[in-house]
Design brief:
Elements (H helix, E strand, L loop, with lengths): L5 H4 L10 E3 L3 E6 L2 E6 L9 E6 L7 E2 L3 E4 L8 E6 L18 E2 L3 E7 L13 E6 L4 E2 L4 E3 L12 E3 L3 E13 L8 E8 L8 E2 L4 E4 L11 E4 L11 H11 L2 E4 L10 H6 L3 E4 L6 E2 L17 E4 L5 H6 L8 E8 L4 E13 L3 E4 L2 E4 L6 E13 L5 E8 L2 E6 L5 E3 L2 E6 L6 E2 L3 E7 L4 E7 L5 E3 L4 E5 L24 E2 L7 H10 L9 E2 L9 H4 L5
Parallel strand pairs: 19-31, 23-36
Antiparallel strand pairs: 1-2, 2-7, 3-4, 4-6, 5-7, 8-13, 9-10, 10-12, 11-13, 14-15, 14-18, 15-17, 16-18, 19-35, 20-21, 20-22, 23-24, 24-27, 25-26, 25-34, 27-28, 28-29, 30-31, 31-32, 33-34, 37-38
């Protein structure tokens, strides 16, 4: 499903969704028109990979490399092309004092791999992969592919001055040609900036990396671009943020048998949540906005939050769906060429786990329970167009990115997010997901399904942070600065488990999630690695 960005485009903003992005000395635009060059041959055509040359490049812009994608995916890819922007402070070579242009042609090409077996009689249908050799002080950004052993012309691509680039890394394998199909092994990878998150300035160009003998950790011969514009002008303004959430905000469905519902943070505080301090057995009531919580510092174990005692304990554990909302953090991604809208949901209590062993399911009673459960999902928006590109689903200690065309939608461009029973991990489709070892059939069950219990994040949300907008633009609530645990630490005695479970755990414990052995109360959103960094996955 293609997302429609038009409601966002109607809003006036400095550079969001205008089709081009100023990176400092370079201006980049998306190109999504391509010419077919070569496709890998496999018995299953859908498992092949096709390589394309970008076409329809605007005047004055230059290709930085070619594009490829798997044949089993909808065709919606793009690459960035770039042009130089005249600058008052042009970089110069110290030795000569001559201005150094941002873009230059390569000096040569190196043949990296060919599908040809060396026979000149069988050149038809072969692919040849070329790495541009950059001038001194420049970096190659992508590879070229041809159907001929003849080197491409030097003006077919541009290299970028090194100070306008950042290091990139291999991400996911797109094509793996083993020795069974070729004399030399060959892999093609998607790439991403090595330094990511809201402080990262690396910009993905959406070309590919390829090699015959890459070693993990080895620096690649290509780089990504770097955004040197300090204003990050392509990020959405405050009005556009709200328009994006109204337009794309998913609906979160909870399991029909869910007992432990979400609530707003203020409801949790109003209904008796207590602040405890190490060495003090009496808890302190918490102001509705969390203003009396200790702020800043680190998670040092000095403070934690717990449920009230007495009759109110079970009431608070059950949550309050009517008050629940999504707490939104907006931040730059991929050097400000994308916007991440992280949506956090709070549940006062995380319920017990269910362990799957083969065809058997075992309720683990108290194991897996903890107070205070923060879960999230993240919308990634393309800043060139305002289009929803993908959603990240957080799943306990990991997660997964899902492309917009693989999501379920409830209305228009609003996706569905499924929250798992008791554990509240997020998933893109209904079903049962195993956290552990799928091959061994052993792990924690995550059951998700549609129900009448849901929260519409497009209307029920609160914007709590968007640091790039500047100080004071978005009000950060007091509870967001609480860096300690939102629940006490619990240690489980696994000896209470049936013998068959203890035997399985002892033999393959490395495959099991940590929830089986103990739970530390979770920290709040701002203490998570992905608050500043990129998502895991």
């Amino acid at each position: 499903m293609c997302s429609d960005a038009s409601p966002v485009l109607l809003l006036d903003g400095q550079g969001f969704a205008l089709g081009k992005i100023n990176l400092g000395e370079l201006e980049a635009v998306k190109v999504s028109r391509f010419k077919f060059i070569w496709s890998s041959n496999t018995q299953d055509e859908k498992k092949g990979v096709t390589f394309y040359k970008p076409i329809g490049i605007p005047d004055g812009f230059y290709s930085l490399g070619y594009y490829c994608q798997s044949n089993d995916q909808p065709f919606r890819g793009f690459v960035l092309v770039a042009r130089e922007i005249p600058s008052k402070s042009e970089s110069t070579h110290i030795s000569t004092g001559i201005a150094s242009p941002a873009l230059r042609e390569p000096v040569d090409y190196t043949l990296i791999w060919s599908s040809n077996d060396g026979s000149e009689e069988r050149l038809q249908g072969c692919g040849f992969f070329w790495l541009p050799q950059p001038p001194e002080g420049y970096k190659s950004i992508g590879y070229l592919v041809t159907c001929s052993p003849k080197k491409p012309k030097l003006d077919k691509v541009r290299c970028v001055r090194a100070d306008l680039t950042e290091r990139c890394e291999n991400y996911q394998v797109i094509l793996d040609v083993g020795t069974r199909f070729s004399e030399f092994p060959f892999q093609v990878w998607s790439t991403r900036p090595s330094h990511r998150g809201m402080l990262g300035r690396g910009v993905s160009v959406w070309t590919f990396s390829c090699n015959s003998c890459w070693v993990p950790g080895q620096e690649l011969p290509i780089a990504c671009l770097k955004n040197l514009d300090p204003t990050l002008h392509a990020m959405p303004n405050c009005d556009q943020i709200h328009a994006l959430i109204n337009h794309y905000g998913p609906t979160v469905f909870f399991h029909p048998d869910e007992i432990y519902m979400p609530s707003s943070v203020s409801w949790f505080f109003e209904n008796g949540a207590l602040l405890f301090r190490k060495g003090d057995s009496v808890g302190q009531s918490i102001d509705v906005d969390g203003s009396n919580l200790p702020s800043g510092g680190r998670n040092d174990g000095e403070f934690w939050i717990d449920l009230p005692s007495g009759d109110r304990k079970n009431t608070v554990k059950s949550g309050n769906l009517g008050s629940a909302k999504l707490y939104v953090h907006v931040k730059p991604a991929l050097g400000g060429t994308f916007t991440d809208i992280a949506m956090w949901i709070f549940c006062p209590f995380n319920g017990p786990a269910t362990l799957k062993v083969g065809v058997m399911n075992y309720s683990l009673s108290k194991i897996g329970q903890h107070v205070g459960d923060w879960e999230h999902f993240t919308l990634r928006i393309c800043n060139f167009t305002g289009e929803l590109w993908s959603i990240y689903f957080s799943q306990h200690s990991g997660g997964v990115w899902v492309n917009a065309y693989d999501l379920e939608y409830i209305q228009g461009n609003k996706a569905i997010v499924y929250s798992s029973k008791n554990g509240h991990a997020t998933f893109p489709h209904p079903g049962t997901y195993i956290q552990g070892s799928g091959k061994l059939g052993l792990g924690i069950r995550n059951d998700v399904a549609r129900s009448n219990f849901f929260v519409d994040s497009s209307t029920r949300y609160e914007l709590v942070a968007a640091e790039y907008l500047g100080d004071g633009v978005v009000f950060e609530p007091g509870w967001l600065q609480f860096m300690r645990k939102w629940g006490p630490t619990i240690v489980y005695d696994v000896s209470i488990l049936p013998l068959v479970l203890r035997y399985s755990m002892a033999n393959i414990s490395i495959k099991l999630p940590v929830e089986l052995y103990g739970e530390e109360g979770p920290t709040g959103p701002k203490e998570k690695n992905n608050w500043v960094g990129d998502e895991r996955g």
